[in-house]
Design goal:
The complex is a heterodimer. By secondary structure, chain A is an all-alpha fold. Chain A is built from 4 helices and no strands. The relative contact order of chain A is 0.15. Chain B is α/β, with parallel strands linked by helices. Classes of the chains: A mainly alpha, B alpha/beta.
């Protein structure tokens, strides 16, 4: 793939802390992402099963007996890595802030920027 | 609710990307429709009585309500999830945008190749225009990169993302072309000034031109201009308007001081823009409106209400503390009419109205009775 532009995923500005322990904030963020991905998966499975049934390809029970071949396993592995990356974004954002590679906190005080 | 209209400048979402956007819509409908109203009940039944028991009096203002509410576990959980839903919203739109960005940039170029010819709109960018500090300090609404960041040459990403993002933010309530804000202000004009026929219209802080297009359609004889400080949203606005076949003239300018001639417009507008600016920018923008208006011309600014009771004021300020709308909490304390007087209008010329067209806007319904605030002035 040639130079595909990358778009930022984390907004600039200090993230509020909602709970007494910041770890709870991260856990809740991850939980909601997990909730999202589970919803995505259920939608996809639903699409698949309806398509298969409508085309009379197979019965739902056949899914249980299936295993991926080498190519399918590789594709799954890449997709899973992307999934884990998405799940761990809260941790990555903190690391970027600590190492100053990220932009979450800028050098302009937002209150100062609007207050004069 | 009519579906969001996809056009040439919107990316195609793959099955899982669409499922993420659908999930965000479901999650936010639950958070704002079911859990957010609970925050009022928690305040009445738990937070306020607890405050009274320890202090011997009710909270004195919305700031004291905030201090008490942010300690409450229900509010904390709702608030943290609302914040996360906003982050997920942008992520769900960024994925398909990033994947198709090179082709979207090409599409924007081909859509705008006849720009400037009769019957078409135009685009004028100024790369030397300084970005206001209130844009540079934080990314407004948590949109990563804000309105202004360029991720590629001739970038349109911020506009692509904003267009679909605000559709999801309001759960589709903004209409098939994100036209609701323009429609509301247009409805106000038609109610208060039914015979007004503007010849030159200026839309301040127009972003993707979604409201500019509403005005250009309503007054096809008028010349419509839209200005914004951010280039990527303007490139997108231009391509979007051209793909819709609506001529709008976009230029990259700061509403605090434009290069338009004095008295060159008879209608100057903004749509929920003022609360994203700053204490010093606000009167300067209103002063610029005063300078740009011809005699008899109208200025109309649509604004978000800031709540009436202390707990409503606190809830309205959620966006300020949690969604990078830094200036909006100060708007709770600002008298818009006084700001317009600072800008050069006289007391007789200015009015601030509450306007409530029949709309169900659950996402912004931080108050029981929702109305829009409109700052109006006739030159």
């Amino acid at each position: 793939m040639k130079n595909t532009p990358r778009i930022a995923r984390v907004a600039k500005g200090k993230r509020p802390q909602y709970f007494s322990d910041p770890a709870i904030d991260k856990l809740l963020s991850m939980t909601l992402t997990l909730m999202e991905e589970l919803s995505v998966t259920r939608d996809r499975l639903d699409s698949l099963e309806r398509l298969l049934a409508s085309k009379k390809v197979m019965e739902r029970a056949e899914i249980e007996g299936w295993a991926p071949d080498a190519e399918a396993a590789l594709e799954r592995s890449a997709a899973r890595a992307q999934y884990v990356d998405r799940m761990m974004r809260a941790m990555q954002a903190e690391l970027d802030e600590v190492t100053r590679r990220g932009e979450r906190v800028g050098d302009i005080d937002p209150l100062d920027a609007v207050g004069s | 609710m009519p579906a969001f209209k996809t056009h040439a400048m919107q990316p195609r979402a793959q099955l899982d990307e669409q499922a993420r956007q659908d999930f965000v819509t479901s999650l936010r409908a639950h958070l704002s429709g079911r859990l957010m109203p609970g925050a009022y009940k928690v305040y009445e039944n738990r937070v306020e009585p607890k405050f009274r028991a320890t202090e011997g009096r009710p909270p004195a203002d919305h700031e004291e309500v905030r201090k008490a509410m942010t300690q409450d576990p229900y509010y904390q959980f709702w608030s943290a999830m609302q914040r996360r839903s906003q982050e997920l919203l942008w992520e769900s739109v960024i994925d398909p945008t990033e994947r198709q960005l090179p082709s979207l940039i090409e599409t924007s170029k081909s859509l705008t190749q006849n720009a400037g010819t009769p019957g078409r709109g135009s685009l004028r960018l100024d790369p030397r225009l300084p970005l206001p500090r209130y844009h540079a300090a934080v990314d407004i609404h948590l949109q990563p990169g804000g309105y202004h960041t360029e991720f590629a040459e001739d970038d349109v990403a911020a506009g692509v993302i904003y267009d679909k993002g605000i559709n999801l933010y309001m759960g589709g309530a903004l209409g098939p072309e994100n036209n609701l804000m323009g429609d509301i202000l247009l409805a106000y004009l038609k109610e208060k000034h039914p015979d007004f026929r503007p010849k030159r219209i200026l839309d301040l802080g127009c972003a993707i031109g979604n409201s500019s297009v509403v005005w250009a359609r309503a007054f096809p004889e008028a010349e419509v201009h839209g200005i914004d400080v951010a280039a990527p949203v303007l490139r997108y606005a231009h391509a979007r308007a051209e793909s819709l076949g609506v001529p709008v003239h976009f230029s990259q300018q700061n509403a605090e001081h434009t290069d338009f001639q004095e008295a060159s417009f008879d209608l100057v507008l903004s749509h929920i823009v003022l609360h994203e600016t700053s204490k010093s920018a606000l009167p300067r923008i209103l002063g610029e409106c005063h300078r740009l208006l011809s005699p008899g011309g109208l200025m109309l600014h649509l604004e978000i209400p800031r709540g009436k009771t202390d707990v409503e004021k606190f809830m309205h300020n959620w966006e300020s503390y949690n969604n990078n709308e830094t200036f909006s909490r100060f708007m709770t304390l600002i008298d818009l009419k006084a700001e317009a007087l600072k800008g050069g209008f006289t007391s007789e010329q200015v009015r601030v109205d509450e306007f409530a067209p029949k709309l169900d806007v659950a996402q912004m319904n931080y108050a029981e009775h929702f109305f829009w605030k409109i700052l109006a002035a006739r030159r």
